[in-house]
Design brief:
Order of helices and strands: HEEEHEHEHEHHEHEHHEEEH
Number of strands: 11
Structural class: alpha/beta
Largest sheet: 7 strands, mixed
Distance between the termini: 57 Å
Length: about 280
């Protein structure tokens, strides 16, 4: 009987030790805080005044976000309006998760928690409160960044901070189009792109950087789904015209390009590689 009592006491002690360890892990201070910049909008303008429903791509946001959380980083979600960002419905597809519907649902849960009502901050508020606390900025794709990020001077100011401090700046698929905001007149540059009038980017902070974005062949595949409608401009050409040294691989193959603080991924299938590159850059700081 005494042996049985001793074993029960030992078992309870082990359970308490395990509980304390789990508690300590769950309350450990984060390694740092990463700002995640998403679009406020859901209707992509097309030629001839038409629009196309858009938003963020689930895996392009959720996979790197999940990896960052698992690596010990805290995430702050920001949109220009401080509203809840929405996914592109076409991205809610297991093919972007290696055909694994269970993994897709798990990532949906991660994203739902991050974007729950009350958790999204307005861009102006984040800038006003100061950006020093953030270790990096991450910009997921989907076509939505073409609507309100690439032409936004406030986004440009945010990017200027991370560029000046040499802090990791990561963007995937269409997310890199956001980088065009970091020039003297991003709205004017966009207007020139739409008019096809050979725009000139002035004082673009990423001029000469090696980078990637959703390629022209990949964009053509997307455009073919628009039933005759056309994009106002192709993002890859827009980046090259601004001075980006564009680097592409075969369509739909993972591709991540790192140049100084800038980390860019070509397409949705670059999600895991981009997450790994961003975490590596953060861990080196």
């Amino acid at each position: 009987m005494n042996r049985l009592i001793a074993m029960k006491i030992l078992f309870k002690s082990l359970l308490l030790t395990l509980a304390l360890a789990v508690s300590a892990t769950s309350h450990a201070a984060p390694k740092g805080e990463v700002l995640v910049l998403l679009s406020s909008e859901t209707e992509l303008p097309l030629q001839n005044g038409q629009t196309f429903p858009s938003g963020y791509y689930l895996n392009e946001f959720g996979v790197p976000a999940d990896a960052l959380l698992r690596a010990g980083y805290q995430l702050t979600i920001v949109t220009p309006k401080g509203n809840q960002p929405k996914p592109d419905q076409s991205s809610i597809d297991p093919m972007y998760f290696g055909g694994n519907a269970v993994e897709m649902q798990r990532i949906q849960g991660v994203v739902a928690e991050l974007t729950a009502p009350g958790k999204i901050k307005p861009l102006a508020e984040v800038i006003k409160s100061g950006l020093e606390a953030y270790a990096a900025v991450f910009i997921p794709g989907g076509h939505a960044p073409l609507i309100d990020l690439s032409n936004n001077p406030e986004v440009g100011a945010l990017l200027q901070h991370f560029h000046a401090k040499g802090k990791p700046t990561a963007a995937i698929c269409h997310g890199p189009i956001t980088l065009l905001a970091a020039q003297d007149d991003p709205r004017g540059y966009e207007q020139a792109l739409v008019k096809n009038s050979q725009p000139q980017a002035t004082n673009w902070i990423y001029n000469g950087y090696r980078m990637t974005i959703f390629s022209d062949p990949e964009e053509k595949v997307f455009e073919d789904t628009l039933k005759g409608d056309k994009l106002r401009f192709y993002p890859a050409k827009a980046m090259a015209q601004a001075g980006g040294q564009m680097k592409f691989v075969e369509a739909w193959q993972p591709n991540v390009v790192v140049d100084r603080e800038l980390i860019t991924g070509q397409n949705p299938f670059s999600d895991h590689a981009l997450a790994a590159a961003l975490i590596e850059a953060l861990n080196k700081r």
